[in-house]
Design a protein that fits this description.
By secondary structure, this protein is an alpha+beta fold. The protein has four helices and six strands; from the N terminus they run H-E-H-E-E-E-H-H-E-E. It has a domain at 34-66 and 82-153.
Length: 176
């Protein structure tokens, strides 16, 4: 078993390069995604989350030229959103900009690039996602892959998973 774990670790380092063992916590790397069709800015085939503007067109209700961007309690619309993701420091327009997302440097990106937004604070997770260690991707080993963005599994407003009860371990047969 120890040899198997060692081999898996060795393969991860070999496939991902030295960025897989980066010692800078929270730092995003510039390593292209293995097996994708591009780099950090365009990793390949991205499967948008269910909350992309394609499914929820913001402009249907919002007029961004007259939008109140001040931090306040929402009492009329979006009252179902409970921000538990840096809730004391964050506000809607820290991440949202019309039907796009906004990075900390104010660069506007598409929802299909939301992993860049998340990776600004969660650099080690972004690194693991690019290496295929975190998150879900499908496709063939050497061919094209379909990447799922962070919001496919995590609610961006409450990203932490709820604790679950572990299952009981298997029972050893008495006849062994």
């Amino acid at each position: 078993m120890k040899h198997l774990v060692f081999c898996i670790c060795l393969m991860t380092v070999w496939l991902c390069g030295e960025s897989a063992i980066s010692t800078t916590p929270g730092a995003a790397s510039n390593v292209p995604i293995q097996g994708g069709q591009g780099t950090d800015d365009s990793p390949g085939n991205i499967l948008p989350s269910g909350t992309s503007p394609r499914n929820l067109p913001c402009a249907k209700c919002h007029d961004y030229t007259q939008e109140d961007r001040s931090k306040r309690e929402l009492v009329k619309y979006h009252t179902d959103i409970q921000l538990q993701h840096g809730d004391k420091q964050r506000w809607c327009f820290d991440c949202h900009d019309g039907e796009k997302l906004r990075l900390q440097n104010r660069q506007v990106i598409d929802f299909s690039q939301s992993y860049l937004l998340c990776g600004q604070c969660h650099g080690t997770i972004l690194r693991d996602w690019k290496a295929g260690i975190h998150g879900k991707r499908s496709g063939s080993w050497a061919g094209d892959k379909l990447y799922r963005v962070c919001a496919s599994c995590h609610d961006p407003h409450q990203p932490k998973f709820k604790a679950i009860e572990p299952k009981q371990p298997p029972v050893k047969p008495s006849d062994l």
